[in-house]
Amino acid sequence: VRISGFLDKSVGDYIIPSDRVAHVQVGNSLEHALLVLTQTGYTAIPVLDSEYKLHGLISTPLILDAITGLKRFEFEKLDKLAVEEIMNKKIPTLTLDDTLEKGLKLLINHPFVCTVNNEGYFEGILTRRVILKQLTAYIHL
Amino acid sequence: VRISGFLDKSVGDYIIPSDRVAHVQVGNSLEHALLVLTQTGYTAIPVLDSEYKLHGLISTPLILDAITGLKRFEFEKLDKLAVEEIMNKKIPTLTLDDTLEKGLKLLINHPFVCTVNNEGYFEGILTRRVILKQLTAYIHL
Ligand SMILES: Nc1ncnc2c1ncn2[C@@H]1O[C@@H]2COP(=O)(O)O[C@H]3[C@@H](O)[C@H](n4cnc5c(N)ncnc54)O[C@@H]3COP(=O)(O)O[C@H]2[C@H]1O
Ligand SMILES: Nc1ncnc2c1ncn2[C@@H]1O[C@@H]2COP(=O)(O)O[C@H]3[C@@H](O)[C@H](n4cnc5c(N)ncnc54)O[C@@H]3COP(=O)(O)O[C@H]2[C@H]1O
């Protein structure tokens, strides 16, 4: 019974709020994105526009793939390509009043899921770490 | 009741076996490691020796950190540094007969955990994806 109490909770109570989420802008270069990923230590982060709308995700695998040449890494491409050209645009999203059950299902295949409001403005992320931490607390009834 | 049935199961029944896990060797260069990470799309993989013993983990954030200079990325360092010098050696491990409960607790803070046998030989990894998939099946009683 307790576990269904957990699954009905709202995503909004468990997200990392947008002001604490590292992100880059659509027009940034891959070099800038790689710098932010390196400085934060994250392997993937959201891509927003200047109005804070969500456009996709950029990650170290996507950047490395984009600069892989036949014989070597073509690092000189980093400041020639924009995040917008490489980012993953086909990503699931949640809203703040979605249930944790819906979030849990998406987290099976995604390390984190972005939450947006009805107009597409970015509000934060739900992560596997938070869900696992909460689930562990709940199942030790 | 069913959930404790799940937590008592053995890690060994849920790991990705070693022959399906991408890895590098302690003596490989960072350039080789970056190539393997790029080709597989993974952000972190185990580091083994020639006898298949586990020594640590290497990841894109660790490699990027190692080549970050004051003004730019020092890509020329990639073929001068060895995985052994940069890898994370302080990692938790599981054995095949550990319970999923023990695995779940470690997965809160680690995207995957390596399993080894009593002599330290690598046997596979337990991932957050597998645990989340199994947990979701169990809680929908
Ligand atoms: N600075 C740090 N302090 C403590 N633990 C750290 C950490 N950096 C990474 N980790 C641990 O490693 C996991 C994977 O990080 P990764 O960057 O690949 O994958 C992360 C990253 O891509 C993204 N993420 C998490 N927090 C973020 C933030 N504040 N800003 C932007 N992206 C974030 O969500 C993914 C899943 O995050 P989650 O927390 O479930 O899982 C994290 C967390 O358990
Ligand atoms: N080729 C692929 N096909 C389908 N989904 C993919 C995928 N590559 C990544 N993903 C998805 O992205 C998650 C994070 O991948 P990441 O490489 O950062 O983090 C991975 C990676 O560092 C490592 N890993 C997983 N499978 C591996 C393997 N066969 N060999 C080596 N390392 C592996 O364990 C971490 C957690 O894996 P997990 O499956 O929980 O979580 C994976 C999975 O949900």
Descriptive notes:
- The structure is a homodimer of 141-residue chains.
- In chain A, strand 5, helix 5 (100-107) and strand 6 form a beta-alpha-beta unit.
- Helices cover 34% and strands 20% of the residues of chain A.
- In chain A, the strands form two sheets. In chain A, strands 1-7-6-5 form a four-stranded mixed sheet. In chain A, strands 2-3-4 form a three-stranded mixed sheet.
- Chain A is α/β, with parallel strands linked by helices and 141 residues long.
- The longest helix of chain A has 12 residues, at 128-139.
- The interface between A and B is medium-sized, with 31 and 31 residues.
- One ligand 2BA sits between chains A (16, 20-22, 41-45, 111-112, 127-129) and B (43, 109, 111).
Secondary structure blueprint with pairings:
The structure is a homodimer of 141-residue chains.
Chain A: H1 2-7, E1 16-17, E2 24-25, H2 30-40, E3 44-48, E4 54-59, H3 60-66, H4 83-86, E5 93-94, H5 100-107, E6 112-116, E7 122-127, H6 128-139
Parallel strand pairs in A: 2-3, 5-6
Antiparallel strand pairs in A: 1-7, 3-4, 6-7
Bound molecules: the ligand Nc1ncnc2c1ncn2[C@@H]1O[C@@H]2COP(=O)(O)O[C@H]3[C@@H](O)[C@H](n4cnc5c(N)ncnc54)O[C@@H]3COP(=O)(O)O[C@H]2[C@H]1O (2 copies).
One ligand 2BA sits between chains B (16, 20-22, 41-45, 111-112, 127-129) and A (43, 109, 111).
